[in-house]
Write a structure and sequence with these properties.
Mean pLDDT: 92
Structural class: alpha/beta
Helix content: 40-55%
Low-confidence stretches: 15-22
Distance between the termini: 136 Å
Radius of gyration: 30 Å
Strand content: 5-15%
């Protein structure tokens, strides 16, 4: 009789082994042997393997546990954290997109290009989610589609729509949406809720009745209000009383303890600075306020009380820290609230004493941000600048240097933002069932805070992010900061670099437009020549308004030759761009003389190719006054009177110009006409009184 026992044992072993293997689930991606940062408890778990199925975390295993996966990443004991979130971005404008002209991007994959910019600017740095805090409503159809259809190759996007302000008789930026009254405000909230928005932004110019009504309606509609209050209309404390908990920008705490009307002039006097329209100087002034507060015990005490109140009510506060640090020269990566003109350093013009004061007050600001954190105010990162991903990493380092522990910094950059925006049910921590949006550091930030900038493996929706660098967009930076010759040389080499994708027409076109808008005419012309060479059949359109504004910005800097070069280049290559009479007359005066400018106006005043705008002409007149060209200024103001004889303001300006040159009779004559047309022109009446005219 044969002995079948060994054969039976072998069959049993095979069957058991097969059954055992069938019990080991298979995953799409395994990130093996990592140290996981627990963003909730701020602790690190070592020797772990994260298993991903589809776009979600399916399991978290010990390194010794068996697993099957289609793809495996060797973590090599590196730090794994949730994806970062930037809670205050602006998709439009910051990306170079024309503020109110989405139609110009509908063809030639323009919208895809803009969405890919968010990947270059954010996702490439580990920012897997961004919140747009204000955009023109003309763009909402497109950006809301991005929100509703997330994809692994792009960051998650959530939009707020426009920034809500109370109706004013003045020009508003395209992303400011005016509310006529409380009823209209409620209607706007319901409109946004119907569109599917999760958030709205109430801005600093929204008056209390409108503000309170919109907060109340938002609560009914399930919309989360985010608010920027910094001009003594609504304070943070009042907003919290209304029920608001999300506040934008750390620097907005200062007007909740100060009266800007009273304290701003006193602060300027203390530091020997002045009110200005310069965005960099404005940003610096926001820093100076913290030094002013620290030097006044009563304000210091009030600010501490505000922090305690915010913490008690569960309020949170975004940062915008890198922008303010940039103005003080405290970061290696410069950012600004406004990208244009393109620059790498703040344009302040401060003396050594003023610069030292700015550095000291910056330290005061960082003292207060740490104090707010220690008091329990939930901080979240909101960069509010063009290159938000890199700026977010910089903000993390600034927070650490302020004395905030690294585990708290990582929580601020991840979970705090997701919780504040009510997104923590799916993101913000590494847990089973949550979305697999992850960042794997090459070097550990706990070893050295500068390792925040180290290379990273980025997982978005369970897939490894790998986007080719953009030749078109990087060309802009090289041209802008290294010059035409180096830029063209870089361009030739980049085309053969495997790290870069091909040259896309829409990206190169956008580069030309941004360089023109960024006061870089030589660089723009170089990029345009490349565009024309590579895409000879393509026609480029330029926004004439943006172009004109930039030429004026160059003129205000006193660089007439540079402005003339850009003006001539635009006329030659973009004849269909909108043209303005005031700029045309200014250029005529530069190239010829006053008499030729007067004749040119009479010749072209009915030419529909030129826009004749009263405010533009007035602006030209004042620009000429600033340049000391009083005869030319008077000529422009006279032309404006000729063109708009029923406007009280043009006579007022002409009267001011005559007064500047000492011609009192003509000054009186024009001020009288201005007051006759507008009896409420109190300034004109005061001038007449000073001139002895009742």
């Amino acid at each position: 009789m044969k002995n079948y026992l060994p054969l039976r044992l072998l069959l049993i072993f095979i069957i058991c082994s097969a059954f055992s293997c069938s019990q080991t689930p298979s995953y799409d991606l395994a990130i093996q042997n990592v140290s996981i940062f627990d963003s909730k408890n701020k602790i690190i778990s070592h020797n772990k393997t994260v298993m991903i199925s589809g776009d979600s975390i399916a399991a978290i295993l010990a390194n010794t546990d068996p697993f099957k996966a289609k793809e495996t990443i060797d973590g090599n004991e590196r730090l794994l954290i949730p994806g970062f979130i930037d809670t205050h971005t602006h998709l439009i404008g910051n990306y170079g997109a024309d503020a109110d002209s989405p139609e110009t991007y509908l063809g030639d994959s323009g919208l895809k290009m803009l969405r890919e910019l968010s990947s270059h600017h954010y996702l490439a740095h580990g920012v897997t989610t961004i919140i747009d805090m204000g955009q023109p409503e003309t763009w909402m159809e497109h950006t809301l589609a991005w929100q509703k259809k997330p994809a692994p190759e792009y960051p998650n996007v959530f939009i707020c729509g426009g920034s809500m302000v109370t109706d004013e008789d003045r020009w508003q930026p395209a992303h400011h949406i005016e509310v006529k009254d409380p009823a209209h405000g409620r209607e706007k909230v319901r409109e946004y809720a119907k569109m599917g928005l999760k958030y709205m932004k109430l801005y600093r110019k929204l008056q209390k009745p409108d503000y309170e009504a919109m907060v109340d309606e938002a609560s009914k509609q399930g919309i989360l209000i985010n608010t920027h209050v910094d001009n003594n209309v609504v304070t943070i404390q009042e907003a919290m009383d209304y029920g608001v908990r999300n506040f934008e920008h750390f620097f907005t705490v200062t007007p909740s303890v100060l009266s800007y009307e009273v304290d701003w002039p006193l602060m300027n006097k203390k530091y020997n600075i002045r009110m200005t329209s310069s965005i960099d100087q404005f940003t610096a002034q926001m820093v100076f306020f913290f030094g002013y507060i620290k030097d006044h015990p009563e304000f210091d005490s009030e600010l501490n009380t505000l922090f305690e109140s915010m913490a008690a009510k569960g309020a949170n506060l975004s940062t915008a820290l890198n922008v303010l640090a940039s103005s003080a020269g405290k970061t290696d990566f410069f950012t600004s609230f406004e990208y244009y003109p393109i620059r790498k350093n703040p344009d302040l013009g401060y003396s050594d004493t003023q610069q030292k004061d700015l550095e000291d007050t910056y330290e005061a600001m960082m003292y207060y941000i740490k104090r707010a954190h220690n008091a329990g105010v939930k901080l979240r990162i909101g960069t509010d600048c063009r290159f938000g991903g890199r700026a977010l990493l910089s903000e993390m380092m600034l927070l650490y240097k302020a004395g905030i522990p690294m585990e708290d910094v990582l929580q601020i950059a991840t979970l705090n933002g997701y919780e504040s925006m009510r997104l923590d049910d799916h993101r913000g921590s590494i847990e089973i069932g949550k979305k697999a949006d992850l960042v794997l550091f090459d070097k550990n930030p706990f070893d050295d805070y500068k390792n925040i900038l180290s290379d990273k493996t980025i997982i978005k929706d369970g897939q490894v992010f790998n986007l080719k660098k953009s030749i078109g967009h990087e060309l802009k930076e090289v041209l802008a900061f290294e010059g035409v010759e180096k830029g063209l040389d870089w361009f030739e080499k980049a085309q053969t670099d495997e790290n870069y994708g091909p040259v896309f027409k829409n990206e190169l076109r956008n580069t030309v437009k941004e360089l023109m808008g960024g006061a870089k005419p030589d660089e723009a012309m170089a990029a345009y020549k490349l565009y024309s060479k590579l895409f000879p059949d393509a026609k480029m359109q330029i926004d004439g308004i943006a172009l004109t504004n930039m030429i004026y910005a160059i003129l205000r800097e006193g660089n007439e030759a540079k402005a003339k070069k850009l003006y001539d280049f635009a006329n030659e290559n973009f004849p269909d761009a909108k043209k303005f009479m005031g700029l045309h007359l200014f250029m005529t005066m530069m190239e010829k003389d006053i008499i030729k400018a007067e004749k040119e106006f009479e010749l072209q005043r009915n030419n529909k190719d030129y826009t004749l705008d009263e405010n533009e002409l007035n602006g030209v007149g004042y620009l000429l006054i600033q340049q000391g060209k009083l005869a030319e200024a008077i000529t422009i103001f006279k032309i404006n009177v000729n063109a708009f004889p029923k406007s009280w303001n043009v006579y007022d300006s002409l009267g001011e110009a005559y007064l500047e040159v000492g011609n009192k009779p003509l000054a009186i004559k024009n001020y009288r006409e201005s007051v006759r047309l507008n009896p409420e022109n109190t300034y004109g009446s005061e001038v007449l009184k000073k001139l002895g005219v009742q």
